[in-house]
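HUMAN: I'm a chemist; might I ask for a sequence paired with its structure tokens?

ASSISTANT:
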Amino acid sequence: AVVSYDPVPGGGRFGNLMVDNLRRALGVVAGGRGGGGDGSEAAARLSLEATRTLSDQLGRLEECGFRSAAGCDMMDAYSCGVVPEDERRRAASAEMLDELEEFELLMRHYCLVVGVATDGEGDDDALRLCSVGEDSPVGFREGRCSV
């Protein structure tokens, strides 16, 4: 099984800014070349650009051979059970952000995904990690998480 916490920039202004900032930080310019002037190839596309949505993240796991995958953006993880209520209260008391809108914007641009690669025999417990609903051991909820 694999658990991944990754950015999902989407196609909006904030997401595009995330991608641009990462490119600058890594010295990658548009077109996939390193910004160092030596002509060395950087990744043709940042993985961030190839997985701009939760659906892209889940598809990446399936392409890598995972039999089952599920995930949600971090706002849904935070508000719908993946993050326990006592942890939400503790985080709220820290007042790390002045604006709840900023917090939600950030949380909607990151995701939590779980993938399971199984051989099919006796793997019910592993496959439950990717289940969505009341019995999800991870806390993925119907209507808030994708499979």
About this structure: Residues 70 and 130 are 5 Å apart (CA to CA).
